[in-house]
Amino acid sequence: MTRKLTDIKKLTEEILNEFDPMCSFRDFRMVKSHTGVNLIFDLVIPFSKKIIRRVKF
Hints:
Layout: H1 3-19, E1 24-33, E2 36-44
Antiparallel strand pairs: 1-2
């Protein structure tokens, strides 16, 4: 794993931990695109966690 990937993975983990320490992620990848870099990962949320989000358009 490159240093840049390791640093960004650690930062993502810190942000997620601030959001909810019960959540985690796996299969972390960085993919270059024509507009920048995309972070791709699986978010692991405990089954007991209820997530309700309302989106207004």
